[in-house]
Amino acid sequence: AIEEQRRGAFKRVLIGLLLLNLAPLAATVGQPDYNPGAVIASYGTIALIYFGAVFFFRKGWLELSAHFLTAGIFTVAFACVLFMGGVNSLISASFITVILIAALTAGARATTIYAALSFLACSFVFWLEYRGLLPEPLHSPSDLDQLAALLTALGASAFLLRRGIRQFELSLFATKESE
Asked: Is it the case that residue 158 has pLDDT exceeding 90?
C-alpha cells in the first residue's frame, strides 16, 4: 500500500513538472533573440530526463527513477545558471525546485545531498562571476525569461509543497487510524 502511494505521488510530481516546463519554453521561443540551439539543448535534455524517469518508473525501479529525475533536473539547472547569466538570473531559483523534487521523490538523505550540491553549485557560479570567468551567456535572459523562470519556480514550489503536505497529512491520518 505504501509503495503504491509513493508510485502515485511520483507520477503526479512528474506530470506536474512536465506541465510547469511549458511556461519558460513558450516565453523563450517567442523572443527576437531566440536561440534554437540553446532551446533544443536544454529542453531536449529535459525531455530525455523525463523519458528516462518514466522508463525506470515503468520498470518498477521507483528509487532509481527518483534519483535519475532529481540528478537530471539538478544538472539542467546548473547548466542553465552557468550558461545563461549566473546566480543573478532568476533561473537560479530552479535549485529550490531540485531540493523539493528530492524531498518528495528520493527521500531525506537525497534532499540533504541535493541541498548541499545546490549550495555548492551556486557558490561555484558566484565565484566564477566574481572572478570574471563566467562564460558569455548562450541566451541573455530577457524580462520575459526572468518572469517565466520566477513563475515556474513559484508554481513548481507551490505544487511540490502541496504534494508534500498532502503526503504528510495522509501519513498522519493513517497513523491515527492504526491506533
From this structure: no
